[in-house]
Amino acid sequence: EAGVTQSPTHLIKTRGQQATLRCSPISGHTSVYWYQQALGLGLQFLLWYDEGEERNRGNFPPRFSGRQFPNYSSELNVNALELEDSALYLCASSLVRAAPYNEQFFGPGTRLTVL
Amino acid sequence: DAKTTQPPSMDCAEGRAANLPCNHSTISGNEYVYWYRQIHSQGPQYIIHGLKNNETNEMASLIITEDRKSSTLILPHATLRDTAVYYCIVRPRSNDYKLSFGAGTTVTVRA
What we know:
The complex is a heterodimer of chains A (about 120) and B (about 110).
Chain A: E1 5-7, E2 10-13, E3 19-24, E4 31-38, E5 42-50, E6 53-57, E7 64-68, E8 74-78, E9 87-94, E10 105-106, E11 110-114
Parallel strand pairs in A: 2-11
Antiparallel strand pairs in A: 1-3, 3-8, 4-5, 4-9, 5-6, 7-8, 9-10, 9-11
Chain B: E1 9-13, E2 18-23, E3 31-38, E4 45-50, E5 55-56, E6 61-64, E7 70-75, E8 84-92, E9 105-110
Parallel strand pairs in B: 1-9
Antiparallel strand pairs in B: 2-7, 3-4, 3-8, 5-6, 6-7, 8-9
């Protein structure tokens, strides 16, 4: 069974540009989560999508946004990139209906570098 | 969510058991204890979870004290591939499914 996949593996952008990161969940999973892991800051929750709807949002500015498609894949968009957006962006998926256990399975991440 | 406290680092000899402690003294009755680990530059990997009973799977064992204020993750026979950052997370049984990661414990398994 294929795991969570993310693309691209690496992404280099300059300040002010927009970045689009993609995630495909494990087949059958309806929830996708996005986390940011910046150097020295640890893993921070960004967004949670389930059944196409945004369910929860972390403490990030509105220029971080995303969406979930009918096939449950997801995009994370970061507008007006700033240097401090450089980080590893991790996507995870789970089957919410399997609650309360809800293990999240993580992808390998996208390394975003903002120059 | 209840906060967790873990030692920042620990070493373990290859082939020996690794016992990773976690304090969660403010845990409430509906909160589960989860353990994840993150091997360098990879996405976190789910290890195990529990509510109040001890749990075991193919990766590890989880021992939760009777008062649920602390737990221990046991890797029975540590290998070099177990070198990673281990995160203890407490999360309620609710509709808020995000995981709140702390700093974790950096475990180094030495040959």
